[in-house]
Amino acid sequence: MPDSGLFYKEWKQNKALLTMIFLVFMLSNPFTVLNTYISYQGCVANQNEWVGTCVFTINYLNGTYISLFWIWGVVLAVSQLGIERSKGLFDFTLSLPYTRGQIFNTKFLTGGMVIAAPQIFGYVLSVLLLVLLKPEQAVYFHHYSLGMIIVSLLAYSLVMAGGALTGHIFAQLLVSATVTILPFLLMTLPAINLEILLGGTVEFIHGPVPEWVQYLFPVTYVVPNWVEDSPYYLVIPAIMTIIFYIIGYISFVKLSNERNGYFFLWKPLDRPVQVIVIIIGIMGFGYFGFAATESFAGYIFGMAAGAVIGFLISYFAIYKKTKHV
């Protein structure tokens, strides 16, 4: 169970960022309602000059501030793990008389509460404003407001897991970004290359794909179009959030911090990941070479270039130790 002393340390260390995120999460949703209402009142006041009818409608799919909430989850996770580790402060944290599990859970609970609590409070304030101001419609209001809590927690838990596996900020962000498109890298990219090699069509690429499959891609939630589909699909990011928490917790507890500054804290991951990066480079550049030249020679040239680039990127990223700031 996390200790109050750990919560206090986490607060003192990140209080400016935590306060800012809390206020942004709490005020953005009510501000969206008020801003739309003010625009409506301006339309009514100048109705003789404007063409059309003034309608007080709030469409949460059209340019709302809360669509960027996931970014703050990323920033918070980087601050709690990547920046603390890169500044050399992590050794002090681990030297405190607490278990690694307590330290990780304190960080995760602090981040989770700062993400979820103000959004819930802002949602309640927005509901009260809607009751008071009585718009004709609030399109996707409930779905979007509650869904963004899950999406921002997903982004936070994903980057926290990336930080628990890696030794510096760049590695944390790169691993997290890669995971967001991992289903494409593992399924679609090999299938496209198989099409090129066989000179035909691989049926499962072009066949009907269930709508829920796209929600296995964390990158799907960057664009808020998910709000147009069933709210039950949000079960998928909720489950992924739990999975990433478990990965982060186990990694934080089991992996040694002695490799601080290296890409991965667990050395046995270095070689397999390097091989995977090279293979992805071969397939990716091979596809682009084929698409650019529409010839098999371009495909071979692209594969060769991808192998070299994949090797260089993976070698210098994974095996070169990063110094503390």
TrEMBL record:
Q: Does the keyword Transmembrane apply?
A: yes
Question: Keywords assigned by UniProt?
Answer: Membrane, Transmembrane, Transmembrane helix
Q: Which InterPro entries match?
A: ABC-5_transporter (IPR053046), ABC_transptr_acetoin_YtrC/YtrD (IPR023264)
Give the transmembrane ranges.
16-38, 58-78, 108-132, 144-166, 173-192, 232-252, 273-290, 296-318
**The keyword Metal-binding belongs to this UniProt entry's keyword annotation:** no
Domain of life of the organism in this record? Bacteria
* The name this protein goes by in its record: ABC transporter permease
Q: Which species is this record about? A: Bacillus halotolerans
